[in-house]
Design brief:
It is built from ten helices and six strands, in the order βαβαβαβαβαβααααα. The protein is α/β, with parallel strands linked by helices. Strands 2-1-3-4-5-6 form a six-stranded parallel β-sheet, sandwiched between helices. β1, α1 and β2 form a beta-alpha-beta unit. α1 packs across α5.
Length: 216
């Protein structure tokens, strides 16, 4: 049976690479492409896909809302998440939302082929790294990574999520710039993120916390 696949990624070179792999596994597959959430939803409304390969870091795209809308539109969709984000923080959340696979972009060509084949054959797929992290338990509830933060780090994180800059936070809390910088480095390290965009994305996933009552 001829397969139909949608590749959603904002990088053309990534889409081309995935398309090449798909054609190696399923030579007669029909492959469509999208570079943002709006194009994804337009394609999903107009077509029925056997597989949707979805990057969750496309610009101007709320990945949580996109996945939810996608399943609301076509509840039988088979979605394979393809992302650079840390498996142990993101994989289980998207699997619980309904995705049937999560693949890290650092995966080798053979694992990418295996993931595409597995999902198109009707099974689920998670990366070797994800399996190692969560063991054999199916879709365990992940620990909230924000719980790792100290009260000071949680407070700083709260202000960042509210849109305040480091300078703003320094003035509000009457702290030295180096103290704010150290706290920022610590919370980024504990959350395994690299920038504010990833912080906001992680917060959407975990809806982390209310402002702690502790003061600095």
């Amino acid at each position: 049976m001829k397969k139909s696949v949608l590749i959603a990624d904002d990088h053309a070179i990534i889409r081309s690479g995935i398309k090449f792999v798909i054609k190696e596994v399923f030579p007669f597959a029909t492959v469509h492409e999208a570079c943002n959430g709006n194009e994804v939803m337009l394609s999903v409304r107009e077509n029925d896909y056997d597989l949707i390969i979805l990057d969750i870091n496309m610009p101007e795209t709320d990945s949580i809302a996109l996945v939810s809308h996608l399943f609301a539109c076509k509840k039988e969709s088979r979605v394979l998440i393809f992302s650079m984000n840390a498996d142990e923080l993101y994989a289980q959340k998207f699997l619980k939302l309904g995705a049937v696979g999560y693949l890290n972009k650092r995966s080798g060509p053979q694992e990418v082929k295996r993931a595409i084949f597995d999902v198109l054959q009707g099974t689920t797929h998670t990366s070797v790294k994800t399996n190692e992290h969560f063991g054999h338990e199916k879709h365990p509830i992940p620990n909230n990574p924000f719980e790792k933060l100290s009260p000071k780090e949680r407070l700083i994180c709260h202000y960042y999520l509210k849109g305040y800059t480091s300078t703003d936070i320094k003035n509000i809390l009457s702290l030295h710039s180096s103290t704010i910088g150290t706290l920022k480095l610590r919370l980024f390290g504990k959350l395994k993120i690299k920038n504010m965009i990833e912080l906001v994305e992680l917060a959407r996933l975990y809806q982390p916390f209310a402002l702690p009552s502790d003061t600095l």
